[in-house]
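Batch manifest, entry 17 of 40.
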Amino acid sequence: MESGTEIGDLIRVAKDRLTYEGILIPRSEYGDDKHIVIKIKSGYNIGIEITPTTRIERIGAKTKPAFVPPPSPSQKPGLPEVIIVSTGGTIASRVDYRTGAVRPAISASDLYSIVPELSDIALIDTVILFSLFSEDLTPRHWSELAGAIGRYVAGGAEGIVVTHGTDTMGYTAAALSFALQNLPIPVVFVGAQRSEDRPSSDAASNLVGAVKAAASAPFAEVVVAMHETISDEAIVLHKGTKVRKCHTSRRDAFKTVNASPVAKVLNGEVIMLASKFHPRDLRRKLVLKHDFEEKVALIKFYPGMSPEIIKSLVEAGYKGLILEGTGLGHVRRECLPAVKNAIDKGLIVAMTSQCIWGRVNMNVYANGRDLIAMGVVPLQDMLAETALVKLMWALGQTKDKDEAVSLLETNVAGEISPRTVEPVQTPETVATEGRGISVDESRL
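Output type: structure tokens
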């Protein structure tokens, strides 16, 4: 740079009567040469366009930014043993100062060392299984994760925490809900919407809640632990087969759909919210069923969708299709012959709804009844993502189509609710989602 500054220098940038100070870091690999990026005191990065009037001054010596975790706190004997399995994601990420991007970098051990409160909750052991963003995980990773958890359970672990990227955490939690049969202890997935080096990070509080649940919750199920609201007050525990990420960036992005959450962690205690659950029992023997068939597709129907999409998947040798239909479970009539052809060729085709709440009912309208007559399997209130994972799992357990359909229709891990649960409107959701809306009930 013409100013003589280098990456890692503390600089002052004067532009348009404003002055910025921060550490010079590399631009994104996709950035241009007309901007610089600095990390300001608050911990955030800002980009500044360089113009002929911009003045840059070096005010501090070059110090390469780096993360050095503090030493891990001493562990206290007599506490439950919890294994933290790191797979990557934002909760295990920091800024990569080569590119300015957020990349997987922090191990589960690092997370433990920077959240010393964990030493009062459990005896922690850590392992890095993967270091991947969640969109790069596949069903083969689900199988490997399930196998690893099986070994840790056999080794005497009293709780498992899996750190995971939030974008596909719901898929993996569902997969493990089916793969880990007869669980004796909790398996708690946890992620973060904001990386640990950001001032507004939710990583530490989510991790504390997850470890508390793994160590002392009375249930033995697969759950997802994330913020209940945008504040740090409580961490809510969602059933692994009924949870969906509903917001791109809010800390309370995860919601239980068509059911109630299992529990929450509030003021350091696990408070049960579900009346029925599988109890923790260390004498129970885990049964691993962790094979998945990858040739299954999830098709979201849209107006004008071509039946060629369905035909192409049949020709590609797919074994099953989940249709995410409209409303009660519909696709356009022009697609029906392609659906019938898929079923005639031996594929399992099942129906879910694009609606978030409620369940499919394909007996109401003609298209739905015709689809059922062809052999399309209605999946009640199952989430489309969970349905995809479950069909992969069912086809991984048996090659017999009728047996796989039977598994798909059986409520294996709480993925099917016996009745529809209406979403609860809390004061916060009313305030944030219904602001400015007034309804005169007398006119309805």
